[in-house]
């Protein structure tokens, strides 16, 4: 572990971002900003029905040659997407980039239309007539697993991608536990809604004889691997480039059918082509996240000490298995992470990845954790209610205590470090619980009901090799690599295969390099997101980039530092002892040479180099893995105080607090930004965002007027308290932090709403907790009374 | 389609532009595709997200629900035209200091809307800033940095004026 400073511009410094200026002047370069000479635009004909056999596609005579279907792609050798998990029992789906005789969700691409402008391409799309023979639809995952349900994939015996079973030693506890509480809990299907939709520009570079695909992605190297498999094209013939990417949150972490189609059309027509996802396409065809259903029981003693958890969980995985994460990652993850940050001994969880007539599920910020936390934290509050204690007290009763760290939990997750109970204690103090309790007792003049809720989670991030090997999916992270190169004028170029889409990597990786080498930030350039220029990487997902690629940058820079010291010592005619690199200078006693002088020597005055100089020169590619293959565990307690209006079901957040521990922070401003943004998305999950489907599988929201993304007046001015427990396993002790903010808000807000509704005897368990849901629960309780 | 094209004359970032445009083309596409002013971002194309906000005759407007043909004789200013604008300069500084942007996609629209708030509402407290900005969506920042940035500019201007 290195020295960590909070001043200056190295690790720990709150420095401004290098990427800001171009973005603030409207001079970034997003996919939609790219225009190539002769470029054509694409528009897709998409299925208007959820499940049907295609009995005919009529293309008007005047548009023949401008419309392509799967028959054209298949004749050209294009293969369907296969994202297979190696877990036993996994059923394989094949997803053709354009529908092959059958459609399985509304929005599925059926044909692609090519024209000079997007408007003209859409005109052509509107003129294509597709004959659909409609089939019975699976629009609800619980009905899809009942006997006799229509099958999404005809050759499967049922509609389950995968069933998993974890644990099992629960029967005795279930029979003897003094306290037993059960809940049915559900989260809604969501869209991730990055403000920039997906987009892709494809062309064949005749000079280098490569397909160049510029795409709004989080994982260019994985897109290249997937394209290679589906197009049957050597990876050396494909270059994937990510330009500025306008948010991702998981939606841009997959190989998309549209990417395959654009690539194939560009090669077929030998013309550049562009596809830009519009908002309606996103809301309809990419409603693909979060939909969980739990039947869960907690067993506890009279103090609320957890004895065991037993659960069945269903995840609506949609119609196909996505590349690279597969259809089962989310549900299978539920089984392994449902126990959360708690220490208990008995556990059984069965999960089902259910295949339905909806868009294929893609891991959204926090992946399964948001649903898991929503379920588990409701159970902690339910246990607290049953034993008559404050929910925070029951959390303290059960959280892994600091003296047990590092700790292996009931599902063999290896928690690296931290003081989980302290995060609760600080949250209780900082939200000023006593004051809210007093206010609850005295009542509100406007009749609203006050509630306070807490939720605690821990989040595995920067996953290692073993866990992904265990999933057996197309992507397994190994050593992350970075290349560091001193330029001839003494600057530094860093090349990494991860891709920033808002995470500020141009700044934070420069801070890491500065920490090691002392080169000023303005002389450090990050090159990323380009398979032609960077080392292989699985990309940016799972809160991994700073731990993994940041670790690789530090490792590469340390090797560079060693080489700089050797050359510098030689130039000063000093022995190796006592030669140090600090502040961008190599020093030997009072003598010093600059990195610029050393760079000049290597590149332009090599006659001055020592005879035994390292022939690798001032360029290093280094690989990195943390000391533990289990990754890092960041954690937090969220606390919220809110008011519920029982007459109209409206919720107003009055205070929102996050007490979090991400280990050492490379740039506290950036960490705070990730938390603020995550919480905003979590508030959306909790209170607003839901893609409703009717029984025919029709999505009932297709604009921002009916799919509600929280805005300035819905998101609270979040307060953050940091704890700083370094991970023992990573460079500088950093932990992954990118997703955490989005995990706990639905749970904390649900617990607060139920705290508020307690006097009415009302409990809500499903997200989003819209006025309709809250009023429905109140009416149901009144009706029963 | 070109048979239906209309010729319009307008000012874009201070420069006179004459163009033949299809009647159905919205101003955002016109600015991006014809004028190559790609700083105006299209986030929803149905007038909700605010990413495409520009100025028409000095007033904020959604370029995605404004037809280019309706801008004949008007003066249009995009984010690229605010390089030397004093309020925008203060806002850029404050957005950077307060981490008011992450991916940067909503940012041009945010700046145009924020500039309007600073000019029209020097009295705004934070809830008023939030209400005034509620026509713009951001998916990255959780809005805290944006509110703080606008707060910083309003406070600095009030201090300097006082």
From TrEMBL, chain B:
Listed SUPFAM superfamilies: 2Fe-2S ferredoxin-like, CO dehydrogenase ISP C-domain like
Domain of life: Bacteria
InterPro entries reported for this sequence: 2Fe-2S-bd, 2Fe-2S-bd_dom_sf, 2Fe-2S_ferredoxin-like_sf, 2Fe-2S_ferredoxin-type, 2Fe2S_fd_BS, Beta-grasp_dom_sf, Diverse_Oxidoreductases
Record domain 2Fe-2S ferredoxin-type: where: 6-82
EC numbers on record: 1.2.99.2
EC category name: oxidoreductase
Name of the featured protein: Carbon-monoxide dehydrogenase small subunit
